[in-house]
Request: fold
Amino acid sequence: MIKSHRIITAALVPTLALGMVGLGTTAATVLATAPAAVAAQSGPWSEPVAFTITDEVVEAVDVQTTSDGSVVALWYRTVDETQQLELSVAVRPAASAEWGSTTVLDVLPAGRESVSLVTAPDGSATVTWVNALGSSSVLRTATLGKGATSWPAATDIATDAVIGEVAFAGSPSGESVAVWRKSEGRNSLLYVSERSGPDGAWSAPAVLVAADAYWPQAVVSADGAVTVAWMHNVETGSTVKTVGKAAGATGWSAPAELSAPGEGGAPRLSRGADGTTAVAWVRNEEGAEGTDIVSAVRPADSSEWGALHTSAAGDSAQLTDPLVGPDGDVTLVWIDYDEAFGLRTSTRSAATGDWSGIRTLSSAYVPEQFDASIGADGTVQVGWVQDDENGRSFYTAARTDGVWASATKLSKAPSDYAEGRVAVGPDGNATALWAQGYQLWTAGTGLNPATPPATRRDYAGADGFPDLYARTAAGGLLVYKGNASHIVSARADGGTWPTTSTLIPFGDLDGDGCNDTLVRDSTGALSRYTPDCGDVVTPTTPSAPVGTGWNGFDGFSYSGDLDGDGRPDLIARQISTGDLYMYAGTEAGKLTRVGRIGTGWKSLTIVGAGDLNKDGVGDLLARTTAGDLYRYDGNGTGGVRAGVKIGSGWNGMADIVGIGDLTADGTDDIVARTTAGDLYRYDGNGTGGVRAGVKIGSGWKPFTQVS
Reply:
């Protein structure tokens, strides 16, 4: 059937326009308001796996992700009979789904002492803990350097009668500080010890605050400057104070009071990658456990704290550390005791200084078991335990690109006891570690082995070349295979389909690495047919329902990924109105309606063109009744931008198909069938247009449709 490779001329050559044509409010105008952006996801949670054996008493202490993507899990295991605690740690290397062997850092007396896990920008992870040995306590630390595979022996920082409420922080260069509370009679002091670098010795403990200090918090800036916050508690009520030490300085600043007496509480202190520092606390009030949440922000380029902000939180609240995003936004997550112990969140915009409305993440009873983490890209992940019908279960919810996703239940079955932790890595992927009954479990996002993406429109042979569908009058489907000669030649038989069926060549909707075909039957039901890679779709290919009620649509087009979530999307036109709608592919292999993306498309021929302008987003083509051809660039959030005229004289074409990269030059191409039955290839030029046509076949007139 393929006869020649000559360049077409005269009337058969549609004119290629170079300029941009504004369409104003004509029929081809796209709505100015695109549908809301679809949040980019880090991927579904992996299948939960047991981290420890059954019938152990375990407790998830923490989980953190290092700057290179390695994940560190820290937990307690109760030793039989003695009731002592093994402080255990394990590492999952970056880009791996397998955890390394368990290391027992220390064996602690019964009872939980201060333990923290901190990761630093240099890729290291540090565990700090207190071991109460008989009548004394020892503050210990161990640091796993970037790329290291075994934990070093612990280093003792301080030994004293009582050590508690330890805060540890480090800088990118390895400068570290440890602050802890020591009780002396009825007095409560803060002590501090510092280390100049990863190989340096810890300084002798020194008194930082001489009286009435509780709940210390510490952060270290990129240049080594230190900020410490604590609750100062005296007869007139509690207040929040801070003290600082500039980089390279030998002395500490005078304490600064953030709140008035009686307006303080146990502070939570965090520092973001951009240098923004945030502090928050639940305000104590005489006669009550707590009332409102109070917060303040210190910009990266300032030494002064901003004005205090108060959020109503009911009778009391439990609060996580403030989550400081890469742009300085601050997110708070808390349990609101006045809202049936529900879990709530709010975010302060760095640009405006305004706080968002309060969002409820869970309205169920959350019994003080929750955690929150933020990644380098601003992804927020929250994990919590809530009461279900038959027990307690561990849940998570993520906020990506400012959009919160629905909660995910990770527990395989509820139990009387559950608690857990979450962490977000630099790529936005998350890890969860939780105890369910007598067993520790873990799961992560982005852990499933990546399935190589299917070549756009490769439906036969899995050879990496795009293919072309052709329907006969009797309902037969022939699939013409693209090849290295940049044409379509060998054909495969796709069987006979009802003539009332509409076949839509589509992408890999179910995520198995093989392209699928959507089929609408005479009743309006849409199904997804999923052949194995290389196999041609036929009526007996395994299928799954996608939805019903599609008889009111035509102009079905597949142009790749329009909303940036990595899944193929469908464009459909409502017949009665001519409105254009975008349906996004989902993880479940179905389609969800995103919204209307255009009006006035009733008289246009719609083509899923692929990525013509090489910006990574699928584009659309539309041919007017006059034969003019317009390109509508995908905007990356599910909509398309205003049309650009790229040609005229296309009314001599019976079918126009965005076939994919037939020429294997990295740019998608167009194939068109003339009303006389000749087939032409129009190579994409990489800037949104197409080059002059090349005839690649004849004798295509008998087909009822080429797609």
Notes: The chain has no helices and 55 strands. Residues 1-42 have pLDDT under 50 and may be disordered. Residues 173 and 197 are 7 Å apart (CA to CA). The two ends are 17 Å apart (CA to CA).
